[in-house]
Amino acid sequence: MSSEDLSASRASTKDSFVHLHVHTEYSMLDGAARIGDLVTEVARLEMPAIAMTDHCNVFGAFDFYKQALKAGIKPIIGIEAYVAPESRFDKKRVQWADGGDDDVSGGGAYTHMTILAENNQGLSNLFKLSSLASLEGYYYKPRMDRELLSRYAAGLIATTGCPGGEIQTRLRMGNYKEALRAASDYRDIFGAGNYFLEIMDHQIDIESRVKVDLLKLASELNLPLLATNDLHYTYHGDAAAHAALLCVQSGTTLADPKRFRFDNDEFYLKTPAQMREIFKDIPESCDNTLLIAERCGISLRENENLLPAFTVPEGETEDSWLRKEAVKGLREKLGDRATEEYRTRLQYELDVMIKMGFPGYFLVVADLVAHAKKVGIRVGPGRGSAAGSLVAYALGITGLDPIEHGLLFERFLNPERISMPDIDLDFDERRRAEMIRYATEKYGEDRVAQIITYGTIKSKQALKDATRVLGLAYAVGEKLTKALPPSVMGKDITLAGVFDTKDPRYSEAGEFRDLYEGDPDSMRVVDVAKGLEGLKRQWGVHAAGVILSREPLLDVIPIHRREADGAIITQFDMGACEATGLLKMDFLGLRNLSVLDDALLNIKINQNIVISLEDLPLHDKDRKS
Question: Rounded to whole angstroms, what are the CA distances from 537 to 25, 457, 465, 570?
Answer without folding.
Answer: 9, 6, 11, 17
